[in-house]
């Protein structure tokens, strides 16, 4: 046998689809989550000896998620922290873990009391990483598709023999916003800050002239960090959903920026992390996030 040792490990139940209906009154409320629970700690013997004495079953983790939902869910970030508190206090060898959730938004149909449609374009995300006494909360969303039909351009880039792109000062800017932001505290009204960050991102997208998607992402990040002292870092991953002006000259028709061909691939992929100057990093908390953010 080669000389090996166990290094990083975590385990749990992935993608527990929990739908919590609050029906204290006839006007029901819905929270619809996809929750993943993973424990970290002393699981050495399970791997090296097949000794399951420390292995809280993934099935138990799943049951705990559903049992906790019975007491109400609240924000996904608060729910995940309750799970973290439980597993790290109940089992002495569980020293931390990673709890993640997606949340799907439901909107009332005609303001109806108990009928909804999947009304939120974006999927909300939350991650809680517990390491001993340290808790890191990362929130975000993906799938928020936005477009502005002018006030965007792209000029001043280097040109070489492979460059065919024409400079433009009037183009469509469209993207699917994926973003995650890291809090420097757990003392947060997470639902309220989520709504605020989403609104800041959308408002910033509309404002002013975009010199590039990179420029716009940076302005969104600056605005979020300026408004929210509890946020130290924000990441974006945004495809540049190209809209090419359709050349109608073949049949003698002009096209003053009105008919576009929406290409689906290839697409530019613009990704950036913007951090509050002087703030501490928590790079370990980002491990496990698929892709850039
Ligand atoms: O906003 C843009 N950023 C780029 O980096 C880029 N590259 C490109 O061809 N078009 C664009 N647009």
Q: Any overview of this molecule?
A:
- The protein folds into two domains: 1-132, Urate Oxidase, CATH 3.10.270.10; 140-293, Urate Oxidase, CATH 3.10.270.
- Helix 4 (190-206) packs antiparallel against helix 5 (213-227).
- The longest helix has 17 residues, at 190-206.
- The protein has five helices and twelve strands.
- 22% of the residues lie in helices and 34% in strands.
- The structure holds uric acid (URC).
- Urate binds at residues 58-59, 154, 171, 214, 240.
Helical stretch tally: 5
Indicate the proportion of strand residues.
25-35%
Q: What small molecules does this complex bind? A: uric acid
Q: Helix and strand succession?
A: EEHHHEEEEEEHHEEEE
CATH topology of the largest domain: Urate Oxidase
> What share of the residues lie within helices?
10-25%
- How are strands sequenced across the largest beta sheet? 1-2-3-6-7-8-9-12
Taking the alpha carbons of the first and last residues, their distance comes to 39 Å
The CATH level-2 architecture of the largest domain is identified as Roll
CATH class descriptor name of the largest domain: Alpha Beta
The geometry reads as: globular
Instruction: Please count the beta strands (DSSP E, at least 2 residues each).
Output: 12
Number of separate domains:
2
């Amino acid at each position: 046998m080669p000389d090996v040792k166990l290094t990083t490990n975590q385990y749990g139940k992935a993608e527990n689809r929990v739908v919590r209906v609050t029906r204290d009154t006839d006007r029901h409320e819905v929270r619809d989550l996809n929750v993943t629970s993973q424990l970290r700690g002393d699981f050495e013997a399970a791997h090296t000896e097949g000794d399951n004495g420390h292995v809280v079953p993934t099935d138990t983790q799943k049951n705990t998620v559903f049992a906790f939902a019975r007491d109400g869910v609240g924000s996904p970030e608060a729910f995940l922290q309750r799970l973290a508190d439980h597993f790290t206090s109940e089992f002495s060898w569980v020293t931390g873990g990673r709890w993640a959730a997606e949340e799907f938004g439901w909107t009332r149909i005609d303001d109806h009391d108990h009928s909804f449609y999947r009304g939120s374009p974006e999927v909300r995300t939350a991650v809680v990483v517990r390491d001993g006494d340290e808790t890191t909360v990362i929130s975000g969303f993906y799938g928020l598709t936005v477009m502005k039909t002018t006030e965007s351009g792209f000029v001043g880039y280097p040109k070489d023999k492979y460059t065919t792109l024409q400079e433009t000062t009037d183009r469509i800017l469209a993207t699917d916003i994926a973003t995650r932001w890291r809090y420097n505290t757990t003392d947060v009204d997470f639902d309220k800050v989520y709504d605020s960050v989403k609104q800041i991102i959308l408002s910033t997208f509309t404002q002013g002239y975009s010199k590039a998607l990179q420029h716009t992402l940076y302005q969104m990040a600056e605005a979020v960090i300026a408004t929210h002292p509890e946020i130290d870092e924000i990441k974006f991953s945004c495809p540049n959903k190209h809209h090419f002006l359709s050349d109608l000259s073949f049949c003698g028709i002009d096209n003053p920026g009105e008919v576009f061909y929406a290409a689906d691939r290839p697409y530019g992929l613009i990704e950036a992390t913007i951090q509050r100057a002087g703030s501490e990093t928590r790079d370990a908390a980002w491990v496990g996030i698929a892709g850039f953010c």
